[in-house]
């Protein structure tokens, strides 16, 4: 007996209804991207390994899917190297490509490679899948879509203000209220590391701090100790764990904590600019909140850092994030090219909308009217009417087989098709069509012109 087929953990099949819901989110996000002036690009699903490796920190590198070289991929591995079983040394010999981990680093590569064709500042959006060798769990998948928008070639903080507005515009369009846009600044984190004497351990410090919501204060402190951060430094961090109040109050507290750090002070100035812009322009449904423990654990952020939390009461990780990366393109040879961008987590957003019942009922109705099949002559007459309806933009189809009428009606119900048309011998003789509303049960005999008017 053949073994039942399966798919890898952390991946999913999507049925037509699920695809319709996902397309609803894609189209909403895409519409807002274009309203804000972003242009679409696409990049390959896999990149050269050296494009990706070393750009996401130690933890990120570990989660990159490597692709084995084609052919006899072991022929470049010596017997001694193979016997040592050192994966870090063997991998570069047998794998030269990797699936993309996110869309930002490939975008940076794209900018450098196509810099002579681009008009700066360049505003791009990208909606494509990414892959991470993570442990699958609710809201965390190994294959998932990201919806990114970035601006490269501008240092202006008005870009950050616009991205906060863009988040708000998308979630408002999705009718998702109560979203919190958390913001921090990498310069503030650098300033804190300076104050506690851990400048040389900035990455270790931020990776640990970024886990505060997941593992709690004590385990964060334990991880910092394991990375060599002194007990005195951890004690100086204590005000961060208890920092409360609105944006302004937290900023004032930070000014006290960072009064000896020029880098930290610059971060505070940038946050104040963004907050003032948003306070003046206003948001529709989202809330902007300062979170000084927000680090996101990625090496390339240098300024503002964003993370979006689902409405309170919804058990879900972040549904969006991003930040400014002043030196990202520099690693590919293009210096002094500042960028800032955000990402929407399509899969998590879909789960949130499903949990809250926010998907419109009509988005899964892919066909508006089904013609019942009564035989060859009736089917041909139906196809002529279907062609006329489709030319007017009405989604219509003919049930392909001449089966019992009840089975055809059941098919329409299962697919949630709102109307059926009966074109039998009587209707053909009268040059009419009987249109039935599948929800109310009402039916009317109409001419083709009236049928078209009714369904458009």
Describe the structure.
This protein is α+β, with helices and mostly antiparallel strands. It folds into two domains: 19-356, 2-Layer Sandwich (BirA Bifunctional Protein, domain 2); 365-455, Rossmann fold (3-Layer(aba) Sandwich), CATH 3.40.50.800. The chain is 43% helix and 17% strand. It has 20 helices and 16 strands. It has an eight-stranded mixed β-sheet with strand order 1-5-6-11-10-9-7-8. A five-stranded mixed β-sheet has the order 13-12-14-15-16. It is globular, with a radius of gyration of 28 Å. The mean pLDDT is 91.
Could you give a short description of this structure?
The protein is of the alpha+beta class and 456 residues long. It has helices at residues 16-35, 49-52, 57-62, 79-84, 87-94, 104-113, 158-173, 186-195, 202-209, 212-215, 217-226, 231-236, 238-241, 247-257, 262-281, 346-356, 376-391, 405-414, 425-430, 448-455; strands spanning 39-40, 46-48, 66-67, 97-99, 122-131, 143-152, 180-185, 287-290, 304-309, 320-324, 339-345, 369-371, 396-398, 419-422, 433-437, 443-446. The chain has two domains: 19-356, Bira Bifunctional Protein, Domain 2 (BirA Bifunctional Protein, domain 2), CATH 3.30.930; 365-455, Anticodon-binding domain (Rossmann fold).
Summarize the topology:
Blueprint: H1 16-35, E1 39-40, E2 46-48, H2 49-52, H3 57-62, E3 66-67, H4 79-84, H5 87-94, E4 97-99, H6 104-113, E5 122-131, E6 143-152, H7 158-173, E7 180-185, H8 186-195, H9 202-209, H10 212-215, H11 217-226, H12 231-236, H13 238-241, H14 247-257, H15 262-281, E8 287-290, E9 304-309, E10 320-324, E11 339-345, H16 346-356, E12 369-371, H17 376-391, E13 396-398, H18 405-414, E14 419-422, H19 425-430, E15 433-437, E16 443-446, H20 448-455
Parallel strand pairs: 1-5, 7-8, 12-13, 12-14
Antiparallel strand pairs: 2-4, 3-4, 5-6, 6-11, 7-9, 9-10, 10-11, 14-15, 15-16
Helix pairs in contact: 1-7, 1-16, 7-15, 8-15, 9-11, 14-15
């Amino acid at each position: 007996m053949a073994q039942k087929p399966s798919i890898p953990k952390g991946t999913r099949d999507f049925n037509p209804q699920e695809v319709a819901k996902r397309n609803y989110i894609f189209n909403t996000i895409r519409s807002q991207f274009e309203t804000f002036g972003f242009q679409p690009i696409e990049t390959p699903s896999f990149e050269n390994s050296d494009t990706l490796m070393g750009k996401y920190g130690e933890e990120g590198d570990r989660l990159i899917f490597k692709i084995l070289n084609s052919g006899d991929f072991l022929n470049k591995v010596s017997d001694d190297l193979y016997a040592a079983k050192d994966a870090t040394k063997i991998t570069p010999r047998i794998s030269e490509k990797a699936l993309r981990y996110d869309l930002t680093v490939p975008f940076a590569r794209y900018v450098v490679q196509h810099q002579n064709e681009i008009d700066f500042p360049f505003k791009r959006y990208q909606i494509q899948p990414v892959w991470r060798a993570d442990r699958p769990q609710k809201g965390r998948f190994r294959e998932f879509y990201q919806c990114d928008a970035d601006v490269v070639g501008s240092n202006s903080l008005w870009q950050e203000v616009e991205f906060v507005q863009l988040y708000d515009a998308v979630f408002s369009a999705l009718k998702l209220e109560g979203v919190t846009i958390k913001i921090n600044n990498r310069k503030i984190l650098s300033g804190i590391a300076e104050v506690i004497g851990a400048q040389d351990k900035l990455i270790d410090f931020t990776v640990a701090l970024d886990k505060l919501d997941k593992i709690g204060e004590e385990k964060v402190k334990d991880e910092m100790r394991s990375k060599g951060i002194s007990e005195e430094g951890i004690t100086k961090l204590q005000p961060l764990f208890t920092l409360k109040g609105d944006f302004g109050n937290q900023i004032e507290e930070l000014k006290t904590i960072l009064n000896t750090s020029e880098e930290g002070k610059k971060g505070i100035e940038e946050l104040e600019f963004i907050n003032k812009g948003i306070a003046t322009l206003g948001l529709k449904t989202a809330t902007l909140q300062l979170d000084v423990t927000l680090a996101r654990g990625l090496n390339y952020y240098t300024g503002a850092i964003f993370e979006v939390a689902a409405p309170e009461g919804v058990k879900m990780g972040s549904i969006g994030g991003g930040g400014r990366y002043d030196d990202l393109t520099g690693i590919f040879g293009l210096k002094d090219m500042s960028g800032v961008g955000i990402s929407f987590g399509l899969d998590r957003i879909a789960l949130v909308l499903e949990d809250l019942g926010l998907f419109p009922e009509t988005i899964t109705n892919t066909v508006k009217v089904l013609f019942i099949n009564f035989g060859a002559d009736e089917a041909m007459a139906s196809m002529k009417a279907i062609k006329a309806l489709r030319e007017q933009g009405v989604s219509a189809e003919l049930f392909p087989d001449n089966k019992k009428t009840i089975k055809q009606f059941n098919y329409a119900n299962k697919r949630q098709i709102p109307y059926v048309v009966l074109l039998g011998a009587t209707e053909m003789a009268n040059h009419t069509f009987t249109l039935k509303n599948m929800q109310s049960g009402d039916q009317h005999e109409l001419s083709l012109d009236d049928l078209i008017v009714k369904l458009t």
